[in-house]
Amino acid sequence: MNNASSFLLRRPVGMPRAQAGFSLIEILVTLAIMSLALLGTAGLQAYSMKLNQGGQFRTQAVFLAADLAERIEANKVGAVAGSYVLATSSVADPLSTACNVAACGAVALATYDLSQWQNAVAAALPQASWAVAQTVAGNPSTYTITISWVDRQGDATNAAFSAGSQLGSNVTGTGERFFYTATRTLSN
């Protein structure tokens, strides 16, 4: 090798040596960190969607209870007579009368209102059950509306649902049963 060619191959003093292959390792580490961050973000988004759905169910229960309370208040004669009492149920009721087509009496209107309301609850909430009780009879009259549903299907830590106490999880042992209770007092 002559002096001229060896001079070209030497690096100047103070210039760092080239790092071969190190940038590839940096890129792989960066991709691993980014993939972990994206997986964490996806998990957080899935959890927030689950909670958002629970909030929607609670909001729907409030609207459904308010709907029945307004129906009861609109039919005070039937309400004071106790026509809106409904035992605990989870089965939708077929429409027995058509009060939207022809005029109905107070009792028939109460039956129609309860039928429509039960169908709405069954359609809006998962594994829903409901009850309407007249806690104070006569005039004034007080009704208590109770709606329950199962939410958070992945939670398997609860005991099995007890129909007598209305506590625990659903019948398969997963999920959690939520309740909403509303009370309305009215006088004729």
What this model shows, in words?
The longest helix has 53 residues, at 22-74. This protein has four helices and four strands, in the order H-H-H-E-H-E-E-E. It has one domain (22-186). By secondary structure, the chain is of the alpha+beta class. 45% of the residues lie in helices and 18% in strands. Helix 2 (22-74) runs antiparallel to helix 4 (106-124). Strands 1-2-3-4 form a four-stranded antiparallel sheet. The chain is rod-shaped, with a radius of gyration of 33 Å.
Rg from alpha-carbon coordinates: 33 Å
What is the typical, i.e. mean, pLDDT?
81
Order of helices and strands: HHHEHEEE
Weakly predicted, low-confidence segments? 155-161, 163-170
Q: Strand percentage, roughly?
A: 15-25%
Strand numbers in spatial order across the main sheet:
1-2-3-4
**What is the helical fraction, as a range of percent?**
40-55%
Report how far apart the termini are: 115 Å
